[in-house]
Amino acid sequence: MSKNRNENKEKNKKNDKKIWLLVALTIILVVLIAMLGVFLVQNKQQEEKNVLAYTDLIKELSYGNIEKIEMKTGSTTVKVKMKNVEEEKTTIVPNTESFIELVQTKVAEGNEIELIQKSRSVVSQIPSMIITFLPTLIMVALFIMIFKIQGLGEKGKIYDDTERKTKIKFDDVAGLDEEKAEMIEIVEFLKKPEKFTKMGARIPKGVLLYGKPGTGKTLIAKAIAGEADVPFISMSGSEFIEMFAGLGASRVRKLFEKARKLAPCIVFIDEIDAIGSRRTSNSGAETENNQTLNQLLVEMDGFSSEETIIVLAATNRPEMLDKALLRPGRFDRQITIPTPDLKGRLEILKIHSKDKRLSDDVNLENIAEDTAGLTGAELENILNEAAIIATKNKHEDIENSDVEEAVKKVTVGLEKRTRVMSQKDKKLTAYHEAGHAVVSRYLPTQTNVKEVSIIPRGIAGGYTMYKSDEDKYYISKTEMQEKLIALLGGRAAEKLVLDDISTGASNDIEVATKIARDMVTKYGMSDTLGPIDFQGKEPYEMQMFGENIGDKIGEEVKTLIDIAYRDAISLLQEHRDKLDMIAQALLEKEKINEEDFKKFFEN
Ligand code: ADP
Ligand code: MG
Ligand code: ZN
Questions:
Q1: Are 267 and 305 members of one domain?
Q2: Is residue 450 classed as helix, strand or coil in its secondary structure?
Q3: What pLDDT is stored for residue 403 in this prediction?
Q4: Cβ-contact 430, 454 below 8 angstroms
């Protein structure tokens, strides 16, 4: 979890840098142009004072008022010195040749005019040229700089990944045995492409990895490259979305140019949903997005299967992807990377505890049992937290208590003993948590209460922790109904004992509502509506099921919740003695463990 967050932070930092650079460059540009403008305007104003209009010059010439005329070859600006006037004036003459003729006739007529013709000096030419072209030069330089910076980031990224081939092997990926077995074929192909092409075998060009963040998608992609000993070129989908139109597409093009040079190789596109989400409207960012996606499709269609480039892509939002990506010859193979099961969690814990000093009392099996639903990244995080907690506690090695604390920290949030609770809040929390626990105890599928506590953790005022039993692939309707009752047990206890309800149940209610909605719209568990998937349907698709289908779904969800709440209340009424006992014990000890909890129900 924290690792992902760090990655994001780093990415943000990088983007921030880029944006700041652009802002800085823009400011410099604006200042330069402004300075130049002021300079030119001032110059012009000064000149204007000393300007003599051409018609006036002709007049003065015929009056005989002109003393000296100085002109440069190739320039239409001439300097004029009039009699009785101190400063020289400048005049722009429309045609120098005819002007010279005019002056010469005046001289011939007997006027004393000194006519000086200078060849233009090279030195004086340059500044004026620079001034004329400076804005253009600055603009060009800026654009070159901007594109260099962008290009650099991109190049640096590709080189980073290719120069050192990844050393990660399948052995570094715990669990996922079936998934690895599927990948072996790809490894073989990257190693000996001839063997496959000779047989006429069609090897997938693209493999899509679906899975929650932290389940090891990047890890397994790297492991494929590592096993095949080929370069690993990676990019994240979000990096393709650029502020300049067309840049995303050109980055895709460059990425594949690079891949062709390095083939056989692996191209890994992380967060592909950022570019590959459904092409819908054509407004702004989406058009850019579409161009990038189109380019990716062109590239994938472009290389032949002999080119031994395999494109792996990862996403945790498969439903977002444009269907075009999934056509044959593109990402026609999809592999789901699940959250690890008990065995997988144990293996992951083993791999990541190798370099940590664990005391003998640490039982990785127990930790694996307590961490159902957690990803590989979260398990790794638990072991890191355990090491930190052990250090704080000045333990020689990481002890079991340190690991248990770390599990709680990662799963529930940091224990906050410092937060003081008023006596009234404490009572409310005690009854709320006791409500969850007691109700659970009488529900066959929810009996595994592991710890009840009113010590605030994270945003929760208290918590009831359940021991996860064996990993389940299916959850029955009964179990879901009982889960609803257990979730509403907290609110029910508040209502029953204090005849008032609090905001403390908001998370329970949120979870319960989601479960009830899933039961109706996803798992087809409503008797009246039947086994239909109502999720993610467009309004016109929903109309298929009747005019007021939305209302009916709402009614069904409400019925499930109402029944569960009613059941929770009646269970607590029936076992009011236990509820009071446990709430009292919580007020005294703040925490009840599994063993002590069970004792309340013996006899
Ligand atoms: P994803 O790409 O799916 O978000 P990552 O591959 O980035 O996940 O996993 C993050 C970290 O979690 C890995 O670097 C690794 O340390 C750990 N991890 C995740 N899954 C596994 C696994 N199956 N075996 C070993 N470590 C894992
Ligand atoms: Mg990843
Ligand atoms: Zn609760």
A1: yes
A2: strand
A3: 93
A4: yes
For 204-254, what is each residue's pLDDT tens digit? 789 999 988 899 999 999 999 999 999 999 988 877 665 555 677 888 888
Of 411, 440, 465, the last residue of a domain is 411
- Residue-range definition of the domain harbouring residue 223: 170-336
Distances (CA, A) of 232 to 3, 164, 592: 21, 9, 51
DSSP string, 369-436: HHTTT--HHHHHHHHHHHHHHHHHTT-SSB-HHHHHHHHHHHHH--B-TTS---HHHHHHHHHHHHHH
Whole-number pLDDT of residue 50: 79
CA dist 266 → 141, 143, 260, 297, 577 (Å): 36, 33, 10, 17, 64
Q: Which domain CATH number covers 397?
A: 1.10.8.60
Cα 488 to middle of ligand 3, angstroms: 7
145-149-155 Cα angle (round to 5): 135
pTM exceeds 0.85, yes or no: no
Residue 197, pLDDT above cutoff 60: yes
Q: Is residue 428 one of the residues assigned to a domain?
A: yes
Q: Region 325-345: what's the mean pLDDT?
A: 87
CA distances for 381 relative to 348, 386, 388, 391, 564, angstroms: 11, 8, 11, 15, 36
CATH code (residue 299) = 3.40.50.300
Options 60, 399, 433, 451, the catalytic residue? 433
Identify whether the C-beta of residue 345 lies closer than 8 Å to the C-beta of residue 379. Answer: yes
The total number of structural domains in the chain stands at 4
432 and 405 within one domain: no
Mean pLDDT on 251-262: 89
61 with 200, same domain: the answer is no
Determine the pLDDT at residue 364: 92
Same domain flag for 505 and 578: yes
pLDDT at 28: 77
Residues within 6 Å of ligand 1 by CB: 3, 173-176, 211, 213-219, 314, 348, 351, 376-377, 380
**Ligand 1 atom closest to Cα of residue 213:** 4
For 142-151, 432-441, 473-482, which range has the lowest pLDDT when averaged over its residues? 142-151
Ligand 1 atom 5 nearest Cα: 216
